[in-house]
């Protein structure tokens, strides 16, 4: 599958609700995400990365694209690239004035793998503050669990 090229036509044409109608953008993005996730689940990380990149061109604020693309780079032994992608996603995928807690946690995990404990602590603190500001108890618990796991 090394020569995979992402062609949007199949995604768009499948999503047409009626003949001649415009495709639903959200349904097309869901189809692209499902394809990328399917490839990643079958250990085709390089191909999945191409699809996640395409997804992010269409929907740069979709947190799943950043998390998926970062995971692809982790699986192909590019943890520094993954960490940078998670960092970018933490800002781009979040609403203005917020950060993506899930992307920050993924970045912290990657930093831990790279042996950068100071960055892990800083990133987890940022994730903890963001989860508290968002008043999301599940995210607060998620950050606490990751802090215990990474300590």
Summarize the structure in words.
72% of the residues lie in helices and 0% in strands. It has 151 residues and is mostly helical. It folds into two domains: 1-59; 77-151, no CATH class. The chain is globular and about 45 Å long.
The count of β-strands is 0
Distance between the termini: 39 Å
Q: Give the overall pLDDT as a whole number.
A: 89
Strand content: under 5%
Q: Counting H and I runs of at least 4 residues, what is the number of helices?
A: 8
Indicate how many domains the architecture comprises. 2
Instruction: List segments where confidence is low: pLDDT < 50 over at least 5 consecutive residues.
Output: none
Shape, please?
globular
What order do the helices and strands follow? HHHHHHHH
**Largest sheet, described in full?**
none
Helix-strand makeup class: mainly alpha
The value of Rg in angstroms is: 17 Å
Give me a quick take on this structure:
This protein is an all-alpha fold and 151 residues long. The chain contains eight helices and no strands.
Write the layout of secondary structure elements.
Layout: H1 8-14, H2 25-41, H3 45-58, H4 63-75, H5 79-92, H6 101-113, H7 117-133, H8 137-150
Helix pairs in contact: 2-3, 2-4, 3-4, 4-5, 4-6, 5-6, 6-7, 6-8, 7-8
Which key features would you list for this structure?
8 helices, 151 residues, mainly alpha, single chain
């Amino acid at each position: 599958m090394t020569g995979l090229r992402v062609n949007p036509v199949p995604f768009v044409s499948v999503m047409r609700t009626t003949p001649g109608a415009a495709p639903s953008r959200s349904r097309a993005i869901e189809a692209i995400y499902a394809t990328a996730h399917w490839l990643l689940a079958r250990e085709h990380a390089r191909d999945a990365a191409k699809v996640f990149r395409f997804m992010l061109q269409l929907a740069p604020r979709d947190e799943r694209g950043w998390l998926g693309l970062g995971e692809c780079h982790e699986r192909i032994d590019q943890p520094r690239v993954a960490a940078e992608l998670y960092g970018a996603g933490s800002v781009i995928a979040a609403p203005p004035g917020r950060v993506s807690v899930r992307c920050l946690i993924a970045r912290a995990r990657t930093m831990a793998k790279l042996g950068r404990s100071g960055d892990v602590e800083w990133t987890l603190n940022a994730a903890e503050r963001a989860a508290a500001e968002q008043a999301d108890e599940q995210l607060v618990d998620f950050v606490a669990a990751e802090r215990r796991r990474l300590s």
